[in-house]
Amino acid sequence: MTQAVNKKDSIYFQLLRLLVFSAIAAGLVFWVMNYSMEYVINCYYDHTGYERQQDENYIRKLQQYIERNQLTSRDAESLDSWVKKQRILTIRIYKDGIQVFDSEYPQQELWEEEIAAGDYEWENYYSVKFVDGEAQVYIWGLYAYQFYNYALIIEIMFSFILFLILVLLGIRRKMNYILKLSEEIELLEGGSLDYKITVKGKDELTALAEGLDNMRLSFRSLIKREADIVRENQKVITEMSHDIRTPVTSIMLYTEIIKTGKYKDEVHLKEYIEKIDKKAHRMKQLTEHLYEYTLVTGTTEMVLEEPEYYEVLFYDLFSETCSYLRQKGFTIEFSMEWVDKKLRICTDYIWRIMDNISSNIIKYADPQKAVEICSVCNGNKIGFSFRNAVKQLEETVESTHVGIPSVKNMMEKMNGICEVRQDKEYFYIAIIFPEAASYSEEDHKRNVTKEYMESE
C-alpha cells in the first residue's frame, strides 16, 4: 500500500528549499566576488599611477579648452560647462592663493570671499595658464567608477547564472527520475512485468512509483493466476476427456455386439444392456462434473449474499449431510461450536461443496471409523472441517480429479480458503470463511498481492 507523503518531503517544499539554497549560494558568491573585485580595482588604482595619468590628461584638455576660448580664471560659466561635459570631474581653481572657482558651486563669486587654498598633502595641484595669468587647479575625478560598474554587472550576471544553474540542476534530478519512470512504464506497456519500478525519495513521485510497482505486482499476480487456471483447466479437460473416452468405447463395443447379435442368450443381452446403462450413467456423471468445474472456473460473476449468522447458514445443511452419511453406513462424530458471528456466502456454492465432500467420503472413507465434523474458529476466520479414515481399496475407483479443485475455486470466489491434508491413513479438509464485519474486497486484493510477493 502506498504511504502518504509527508508535507515537508513534498515536491513543493523541495522546490522551495532549492530556490532558497540557490539564492543563498548566489548571494554568497556575489558578496565574495564584490569584495574581491573591489580589492583588485583598488590595488590597480593605487599601484599603477592611473589616477595621476587621468588627472594630467584632463588638465591638458582643460588647458586646450582655455586657450581655445581665451578664458580667464573667473569665467565660471564656461568653466562649469566644460566640467559638466566631463561628468566625472570636480575642480577648484586658486589664483594668487585665493579660491576663484569651485565646480560644486559654480554660480558663487568665491574670490570675493577670499577663501585660501587648503594646501593638503593628498591634494594634487596643477598649474594652468589663463588669460589673466597662471592659476593652480585642484582636480578630482571618479575615474574608477566605470570599473566598479563593470564589475557589478559581471557579479550580478555570474550570480544570476549560478542561481539558474543550481535551480536547473535540482530540477534536472527530478526530471531524470520522471524520464526514468516514463521509460519503465513503456517497458510495462510492452509486457515486461518482471521489471521492478525504481522507487527512491519520499515525495509525490515516490508515491507514484510505489503505486506503479504495486500495480505491476498485481497484474503479474493476476496473469500468473490466470495462467495457473488455464493450465489446471487444460489438465482437468484432458483427464476428463480420457475418462469419458473409456465409457464411450465400452458403450460402442457393447452396442456393436447387440447390433450384430453376437451374444449367446437373453441373459447375456440383458447383461450387456445393464453395462451400457451403467456406462451411460458414468458418462452423465462425468459431464456433470465437467460442467460444474467449467461453471466455477469461468468468468460468470458470483454475488455473495447478505451477512448471516454462522448457525443459521449451516445448521440445516449439516443436519441433512449427517443424515445422508448415516444412511450410507457411516458413524458421525459431530462437535460444532455455533459462534455468534456473521458470514457472507453463496448458498449454491456451499451446496456444491458439501455434495463434493459427501461424495468423496462415500467413495474413499472407511465406514468402520467415524467421520469427524468440527467447527474451525481462529480469530476472524470461521468455518468447519471434515476428517475421515481412508479405506484400503481392493480395486481402483474411477476419479475425475475435479472435486477438490472445484471446491478450492468456489472458496476462492467466496473470499475463503480450502485447506486439504492427506496421508495414507486420514483425509482432512477445512472450509474457512472470513468474518463479514472484518472483511472487504480491498482486503482481499491486498492479501492476494501480499501472498504473491511472499511466494516470490
UniProtKB/TrEMBL annotation:
GO molecular function, one term: kinase activity
Subcellular location(s) per record: Cell membrane
Stored InterPro entries: HAMP_dom, HATPase_C_sf, HisK_dim/P_dom, HisK_dim/P_sf, HssS/ArlS-like
Catalytic reaction annotation: ATP + protein L-histidine = ADP + protein N-phospho-L-histidine
E.C. number: 2.7.13.3
Pfam families according to UniProt: HAMP, HisKA
Topology in the lipid bilayer: Multi-pass membrane protein
Residue spans crossing the bilayer: 12-32, 147-171
Record keywords: ATP-binding, Cell membrane, Kinase, Membrane, Nucleotide-binding, Phosphoprotein, Transferase, Transmembrane, Transmembrane helix, Two-component regulatory system
Position of the signal peptide: none
Annotated ranges, domain HAMP: 172-224
SUPFAM superfamilies xrefs: ATPase domain of HSP90 chaperone/DNA topoisomerase II/histidine kinase, Homodimeric domain of signal transducing histidine kinase
Protein name in the entry: histidine kinase
Species per Swiss-Prot/TrEMBL record: Blautia parvula
This protein's encoding gene: yrkQ_1
